[in-house]
Amino acid sequence: MSSPLLQFQAVSYTYPTAIQPAIDHLDLTLDAGAKTVILGHNGCGKSTLLLLADGLYRCSAGQIYWKGEPLQYHAQALNQWRQRIGLGFQDPEQQLVAATVSEDISYGLCNLPLSSSEIACRLQQTLNDFSLQDLADRPLHHLSLGQKRRVALAGVMALQPELLLLDEPTAYLDRPQTVHLLQELDRIHANGTTIVMATHDLDLAYAWADWVVVLQAGRLVLADRAELVFRQVDLLKQLQLGLPTLLECWYALPTRWRDRQSPPKTIDQFRSKWQNSHIDEAMSQNPVIKPVKPKYRD
Description:
Elements: E1 4-13, E2 23-31, E3 35-39, H1 46-53, E4 61-66, E5 69-70, H2 75-84, E6 85-88, H3 101-110, H4 116-129, H5 145-157, E7 163-167, H6 175-190, E8 194-198, H7 202-208, E9 211-216, E10 219-225, H8 226-229, H9 233-238, H10 245-252, H11 255-258, H12 267-285
Parallel strand pairs: 3-8, 3-9, 6-7, 7-8
Antiparallel strand pairs: 1-2, 1-4, 4-5, 9-10
């Protein structure tokens, strides 16, 4: 059973020049070990929520807890807090502060009470983990956007946080870069790091998350297992979020083909369920028909 990792209790935040709160009386629990997506339209409070979680913004009201311990806003407590929680910004340029890849990854490590040998060891391990060995001495301004995002993520993970927060991590990435990033996130999660991702990409959320949080105008609308959230078709349409493309295609199929099966999570699952539906229908009409594995010519 998962244990609460990060909790928001009646949390509100209003920007200094704003009238309406960006986060409005929010109660939310994020469990250890989950892959969580925060969904919502632009301006719904996704980024603000992550900045509050990392302690970069201070709650206007309410309290944030880490494993039951309240967030304190003095320097020492915030330093400890940010060692547990890593934050990746939407724009990696905001996160890269040094001249080269190695220097940037080392920057956060040098702010920890670590020996020079331990810093060197962690740096090398991080370069290996993120396949950055060949770029170690490359100036940051020579990198592509995908490479910069990988370096920014590596710099966060070098600190070995228990919780990784990501704000629109696939923004501006092409498909191969997105696939590579998601592979990295799966590896990070498999190694024990809890991940929370803010995105408005429904297809990404549907394929990746096992828990989904939906925000609207700074308020919590829904927080549940992903498969239960995406079953609430009418609510998602009412919120003008729509449905993931794969789910739209699934619901467009005749009812008799999909009622006995759960919706697919991937294209391969969709293809398999579609083929099985045709076989089942053919066999029901003629019981002597047996499924035959198709043969293909080279």
